[in-house]
Amino acid sequence: MLVFSASDKGGTGRSVTSCNVAYWLSMKGQKVAYLDFDFGSPTAGGTFEISRIDNGVRDNTGLHAYLLDENGTPARLSVRSETDRTELSRSRHPSGRLVLFPGDLGGSEFTKLDPQMIERCTNLFVTCEQEFDVTFVDLSAGRSIALALALAATKQVQLSRAVCRWLIFHRWTRQHIAAARGLVHDDHGVLDTGEAWGHDRIELLNTLRFVRTAVPEVNVTAGLRPAQAAWLQEQHNTLTRAANRHGMGESGILGKIPVEPMLQCREQVILDVDVAAHVANAETVAAFRELAEKLTNNAVWEQVEVRR
Ligand SMILES: Nc1ncnc2c1ncn2[C@@H]1O[C@H](COP(=O)(O)OP(=O)(O)O)[C@@H](O)[C@H]1O
Ligand SMILES: [Mg+2]
User: Fold this and answer.
1) Coiled-coil annotation: which residues (predicted)?
2) Is 261 in the pocket of ligand 1 (CB under 6 A)?
3) What is the DSSP string of 243-299?
4) How far is the CA of 274 from the centre of ligand 2 (A)?
5) CA dihedral for 26, 289, 221, 249, sign (positive or negative)
6) Does an H or E element contain 166, and which?
7) Is the distance from CB of 6 to CB of 18 less than 8 angstroms?
8) Mind listing the domains of the chain with CATH numbers?
9) Pocket test for ligand 1, best of 173, 213, 274, 281 (most atoms within 8 A of CB)
10) 259-287: per-residue pLDDT in tens?
């Protein structure tokens, strides 16, 4: 299965959530690949706490260089062998794997898409499909060439049988909801671009679900003045109505990740030891695990309706 993580804005929690979901899938025994297709800002290495590739590899062996034909085979690293975090390296399922295909430090967003790039990208996805149960592709924000590349590659005949799922990440604010809706439905968005590369609009829409990140708990009023609590509740109601209107309400979302204090100051995978130490909230890990389950359980995935 190929999972494309997309968002209109940067800073939505797309990468951190995807890394955590990838980790939890590997903890269920799945073989998981993580492709850093955020070419201008490839920070998945940092999130997996592999400090020497915090912002991508330095030797031109990453995905940016691979797509430009500057290396024949892109670098791949076992997260558990390479991470600096001992607890992460030890926290494993006997048959699970988590492999990072990093980006390049000093890479940049692509400005054009050529047939050779599409071919190389297709070959990479085919290889991943053969070797892994789930492949995450963390795409650059917005209407990027990375997005078009993913849509072009998945329409190639070699991938005609691959299961593709799209996750659109957004924060729980007015602008983020509008932006995520726009990324899917507006001009040059996912559906427009997909159609231009031969996808059927409705079929493509059916492969797409929204994920809300860093959602504040509105019922918790501790520490808030009554006026603040009332105002927040009113805003939350307005956001809920907007999301429902755009097919991003309870029926269109695959998951909700609560605000997690740990992630507010550091991008990382949250482990059971962090919850046991009372540093991370158990609800956050539960939300990541639930998202991993919903993403890979066909019956649950299908239950989430998408509005046309
Ligand atoms: N559930 C969450 N609660 C609090 N902060 C979060 C949460 N998810 C992500 N963050 C933080 O938000 C910032 C942006 O997240 P990131 O995954 O880098 O976004 P993107 O990939 O969309 O640009 C990071 O500092 C990250 O740690
Ligand atoms: Mg990111």
Assistant:
1) none
2) no
3) HHHTT-STTTEEEEEE--HHHHH------HHHHHTTSS-HHHHHHHHHHHHHHH-HH
4) 22
5) positive
6) strand 164-171
7) no
8) 2-303 (3.40.50.300)
9) 213
10) 999 999 999 999 999 999 999 999 999 99
